[in-house]
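Run Branched-chain amino acid transport system substrate-binding protein through structure prediction, thanks.
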Amino acid sequence: MLAATALLATTALSGLTFATGTARAEDEIRIGVIYPLTGAAASTGVELKAAAELAAAIVNKEIPAPAGLVAGVGMPHMKGAKIKLVFGDHQGNPQVGATEAERLITSEKVTALTGAYFSNVTATASQVAERYGVPFLNGESSSATLTQRKFKWFFRTTPHDDLFVTNFFTFLNDMEKKTGEQLRSVGLFNENTLWGNETTKLQTKLSEEQKFTIAEKILYPAKTTQMTSEVQRLKAANPAVIMQSSYLGDAILSMKTYKELGFLPKMLLANDAGFNDSEFLKTMGKDGEYIISREVWALDQAERNPLIKQVNDLMRERSGVNFNGNSARAFTGIAVLADAIDRAGSTKPEDIRKALQETNIPASGLIMPWKGVKFDEHGQNELGQGIIVQVQGGQYVTVWPFDVATKPVVYPMPAWDKR
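Sure, done. The structure for Branched-chain amino acid transport system substrate-binding protein is below.
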């Protein structure tokens, strides 16, 4: 079985010609990219795809690269070989994601994989990559267990939910000190795939440790089409704070249901994802205002890092939208992977894996407000960090940590008829 797997892995990577382990200038460096390009999260997938394509265009010198950006620009150690992104559509389905990963490895002969936004799809797709011995760089998925599997070929640039959920409770403690009000009653409202289930466990654990009361805990069916009964339960429990993990369709549905049933907590803390998708505010308008969300990127941080605005301008010029936390992480994933391949000077899987292990990108080379990118022994970037943003005036503005905030928190959320 092991021999067969090794043979398949070798066959899967035979599309490139190797002399001394380096690609010739005319070779393509094929990278498989797996996103939800159809289905409920298709609009998210389109933005992720656009961000990945922007990164590849910068790497390939199709457009000028902003000075200081670390992205393997021009692939000098690969004799100018071009990045070729080959896309797979997982449709939000873990089994389809696994099938697409296998297709990209065996039929499309990709050198490495990236994706897949949905944590449960990343889990299955990366299992396939692990079996074939192909590097998998995950830019967006935040389920903490993804880097607890002792995988050899899996690397993740984004921070994970352990950090994000901890930040929520630190933020609430800071808000209590600032406002003098108690925010100890929380309602947990999360979708029931890997991401939402793990988030709920973390939130429950930290609530107990930090003496917060869980007024209501609801795991709703992913891709649900109605939330009336769930929102009625939240309204009856009347928590001061809702912590919510939702993808785009259910984030929009929940907000509409909140308004229809006249429910509004003092604060809604969103776990990114659907609440930070560009379509969320396009659809919700003023009803999407004052949502607070954990985030890894914000345009207003450009005052501290000029690369943020420079690269965002390119994104807006090409796709018509600003980056958000999802697409900025997708861009960064491709940039980090391209940098590693270039430093490896090779498309051999083991060489790329070694280069990823040796990655040490400074904060100044990123569009993210992180300390850099450096992977620990589990493949987790240990230099990532989170911020918290709030929708104010149709923009996501940084409100925490307070020392990097550009706006104060609007608290409590204004009533539906006061907007």
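The first strand starts at residue 28 and ends at 35.
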